[in-house]
């Protein structure tokens, strides 16, 4: 099966900014607020909104609203200032010219986490307009946006941020230790802890499920042609991070046999900058 080559630079930087929590209402749903900058087309905005809507189906409980106040470029160059209340996460979504088709796809990750649970309250997603147009033309834009929004929420970026969910980083056999993801992995027929990617650059290995095991699951480091399903393993990992989740939001998924490694397969090269603080 063909793997689509993507080069993406992910940011896991967490900033120390002013943040004042407020008490959440009972039964508060999880809300993702998108703030668009740059030149996203209407159809690209639809893809961002669709990804947010699906993650809101996965995450079922909101947190306390937080008043944030930070200047322009606080997380990365080109992003505007913000002052106001956030419920539950603010994501700056930018489409800009970076380096043309086939180069760096963009940047994505958490910028500010909550003191109360070390989960993202502000993050960014920035994509190269040329690459985004190509993905849209190939029908794979929605899956890429959903995948990268998962990194903003903490998949692969917050696993070991004031947690110990990743074991063996940098070794031939990194694994994810969260009890909920492990339960779902073993329900699929796996044994031991969840295999994490052990090949590729610093933004691919240790931050995705292992491609040779999971093949086309949405949170491996490779985008497959055809379906890229969201498994209960990924949803379980979100519960391990601290979110309340809905397992019925998963797609049908079974573990494939070992996937043959193709010379044409290109890893999703994400450089993850580890969190530095929270408020």
TrEMBL record:
<dbReference type="GO" id="GO:0006508">
    <property type="term" value="P:proteolysis"/>
</dbReference>
<keyword id="KW-0479">Metal-binding</keyword>
<keyword id="KW-0862">Zinc</keyword>
<dbReference type="Pfam" id="PF01457">
    <property type="entry name" value="Peptidase_M8"/>
</dbReference>
<dbReference type="GO" id="GO:0004222">
    <property type="term" value="F:metalloendopeptidase activity"/>
</dbReference>
<feature type="signal peptide">
    <location>
        <begin position="1"/>
        <end position="19"/>
    </location>
</feature>
<keyword id="KW-0378">Hydrolase</keyword>
<keyword id="KW-0645">Protease</keyword>
<dbReference type="GO" id="GO:0016020">
    <property type="term" value="C:membrane"/>
</dbReference>
<dbReference type="GO" id="GO:0007155">
    <property type="term" value="P:cell adhesion"/>
</dbReference>
<dbReference type="GO" id="GO:0005737">
    <property type="term" value="C:cytoplasm"/>
</dbReference>
<dbReference type="InterPro" id="IPR024079">
    <property type="entry name" value="MetalloPept_cat_dom_sf"/>
</dbReference>
<keyword id="KW-0482">Metalloprotease</keyword>
<protein>
    <submittedName>
        <fullName>Leishmanolysin</fullName>
    </submittedName>
</protein>
<keyword id="KW-0732">Signal</keyword>
<dbReference type="InterPro" id="IPR001577">
    <property type="entry name" value="Peptidase_M8"/>
</dbReference>
<dbReference type="GO" id="GO:0046872">
    <property type="term" value="F:metal ion binding"/>
</dbReference>
């Amino acid at each position: 099966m063909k793997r689509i080559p993507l080069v993406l630079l992910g940011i896991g930087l967490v900033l120390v900014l002013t943040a004042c929590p407020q008490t959440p209402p009972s039964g508060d749903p999880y809300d993702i607020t998108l703030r668009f900058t740059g030149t996203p087309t209407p159809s690209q905005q639809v893809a961002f909104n669709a990804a947010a809507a699906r993650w809101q189906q996965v995450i079922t409980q909101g947190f306390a609203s937080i008043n944030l106040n930070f200047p322009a470029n606080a997380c990365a160059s080109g992003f505007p200032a913000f002052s106001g209340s956030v419920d539950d996460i603010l994501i700056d979504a930018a489409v800009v010219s970076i380096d043309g088709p086939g180069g760096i796809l963009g940047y994505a990750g958490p910028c500010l986490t909550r003191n109360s649970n070390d989960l993202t309250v502000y993050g960014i997603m920035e994509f190269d307009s040329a690459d985004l147009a190509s993905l849209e033309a190939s029908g794979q834009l929605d899956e890429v946006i959903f995948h990268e929004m998962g990194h903003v929420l903490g998949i692969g970026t917050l696993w070991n941020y004031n947690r110990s969910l990743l074991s063996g980083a940098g070794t031939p056999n990194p694994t994810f230790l969260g009890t909920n993801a492990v339960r779902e992995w073993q329900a699929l027929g796996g044994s031991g802890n969840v295999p994490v990617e052990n090949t590729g650059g610093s933004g691919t290995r240790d931050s995705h499920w292992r491609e040779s095991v999971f093949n086309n699951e949405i949170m491996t480091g490779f985008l497959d042609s055809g379906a890229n399903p969201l498994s209960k393993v990924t949803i379980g990992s979100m519960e391990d991070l601290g979110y309340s989740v809905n397992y019925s939001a998963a797609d049908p998924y079974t573990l494939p046999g070992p996937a043959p490694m193709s010379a044409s397969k290109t890893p999703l090269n994400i450089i993850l900058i580890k969190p530095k603080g929270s408020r």
